[in-house]
Design goal:
globular; mainly beta; five-stranded antiparallel sheet; 20 strands; 6% helix; single chain; Beta-galactosidase, Chain A, domain 5; 1 helix; 13-stranded antiparallel sheet
């Protein structure tokens, strides 16, 4: 039996197997994974979108190259006049481990480089989902979580702790855990509509530093779909493993 892989038709990539499916419209990487289904249940969410600067956002981006390689969906976005940064991104599907409560997962691995002597390549990774409640890890050593306060539309709270969010997805028995590697995070925010259930949004800043010609910077963010039962402990354990893992060697 052949292993599952991404398929790309008319600039839309799809991953589909019996447990987990999702799509990525490559000219709009800010949407990330959408049309997500888990065990036949539709998930009202856009997960792990790569957000470009405002000068480039809210429109289709030029796509220099895209292809699938096993579990990896790879895309390259060339330099633009208003933002001279070349961006490579991979969405990498992670197989679940149901015995641990891990149902599916995806890594987003982004790399930036420039032909200029120096530039500022800041990007962000964001997700949006309808959630019954959400939590943030405030102390990894003691596995202490606190509820995420939802201040209302247009307001975003800077979380404390290592940058792990767990959102319990509305109308499903699932949770979504999102984490940034501690070497890569440049600040995270969370916001909502002011009441629960809420349209819960996360935003992770990446590459908020100067980039020089000849230098490649790489960052990674992980998203996991979990069984809601025991989700906080599972998410904290997964974060500890992610933080201790070696960096990816390539896209």
């Amino acid at each position: 039996m052949s292993k599952p892989t991404w398929t790309i038709v008319d600039r839309t990539a799809r991953w589909s197997n019996s447990d987990f499916s999702a799509a990525v419209f490559l000219p709009r990487p800010d949407r990330g994974l959408h049309d997500v289904r888990l065990d036949g249940t539709a998930i009202d969410a856009d997960l792990l979108g790569l957000v470009f600067p405002s000068a480039l956002s809210e429109r289709d981006l030029a796509l220099q190259e895209c292809h699938a390689r096993g579990r990896d969906l790879l895309a390259q976005y060339p330099e633009a006049t208003s933002w001279p940064i070349c961006v490579d991104v991979a969405w990498r599907v992670l197989f679940g481990n149901p015995s641990r409560g891990i149902l599916a997962g995806v890594d987003l691995i982004a790399s930036v480089r420039t032909a200029l002597l120096e530039s500022w390549p800041e990007l962000a990774v964001g997700s949006r989902m309808v959630a019954d409640e959400a939590f943030q890890l405030v102390d990894a050593a003691t596995i202490q979580f606190e509820p995420c306060a939802v201040a209302g539309a247009g307001h975003a709270a800077e979380p404390v702790g290592p940058g792990l969010f767990v959102a319990r997805l509305a109308r499903t028995p699932f949770s979504f855990a999102e984490m940034v590697h501690p070497a890569d995070g440049q600040g995270s925010t969370a916001s909502g509509s002011g009441k629960w259930p809420t349209l819960f949004r996360t935003r992770r800043r990446l590459f908020a530093e100067r980039l020089e010609k000849g230098v490649l910077l790489r960052s990674r963010v992980r998203g996991l779909l979990l069984d809601r039962a025991g989700d906080l402990k599972v998410a904290a354990d997964c974060y500890a493993e992610f933080a201790a893992a070696d960096p990816p060697l390539g896209n």
